[in-house]
What we know:
The complex is a heterodimer.
Chain A: E1 4-7, E2 10-13, E3 19-25, E4 31-37, E5 43-51, E6 54-57, E7 64-66, E8 76-78, E9 87-94, E10 102-103, E11 107-111
Parallel strand pairs in A: 2-11
Antiparallel strand pairs in A: 1-3, 3-8, 4-5, 4-9, 5-6, 7-8, 9-10, 9-11
Chain B: E1 3-5, E2 10-14, E3 19-21, E4 24-26, E5 32-38, E6 44-50, E7 56-58, E8 64-68, E9 73-78, E10 87-94, E11 102-104, E12 108-113
Parallel strand pairs in B: 2-12
Antiparallel strand pairs in B: 1-4, 3-9, 5-6, 5-10, 7-8, 8-9, 10-11, 10-12
Amino acid sequence: xxxxxxxxxxxxxxxxxxxxxxxxxxxxxxxxxxxxxxxxxxxxxxxxxxxxxxxxxxxxxxxxxxxxxxxxxxxxxxxxxxxxxxxxxxxxxxxxxxxxxxxxxxxxxxxx
Amino acid sequence: xxxxxxxxxxxxxxxxxxxxxxxxxxxxxxxxxxxxxxxxxxxxxxxxxxxxxxxxxxxxxxxxxxxxxxxxxxxxxxxxxxxxxxxxxxxxxxxxxxxxxxxxxxxxxxxxxx
Lengths: 112, 114
């Protein structure tokens, strides 16, 4: 049982490039979320999904797109990377609204 | 909107000493409350959660937390700290009837001296 798997673990981009951060879970969880972690700011919610085909914005959605075509996968897209998006990104999943989230190990993204 | 305050950025305790990490939240109704721990370069691991019922909750690794509605607090405690407890600790609140949209505090980094 792999849990929540995020790829890649590290990535360096140039300003303006696009990229997709992958998140997959094998626990058949309906709820999935993306957070970013910045020094001194804790984690902030970017987007979340309550099931395949259903997504909504979190606290800091600008510059990010998501889609949820399957229960297992919840990719996060940066269409035109900016230095302000340099961060560590975490994906999380849970089986339902009253269950705690399970977190992946994160993707460390640097944008030059 | 809900918010979480962890007033202590960095705490240092001696191994074997007791620990209390503070967490205050702002939310109109009864929130879902969590404590997570993060080791360097790792994801977040759930220590404990509070949804309702008994206000003193037990978690993993010997941690406990007490929900105090009158003080809007959810402080984390451990009676005897081990060197392996050194990590960053995050308090989080889930509002609106869901634990999937979390608002996190800024974290408290715990250092343990031998």
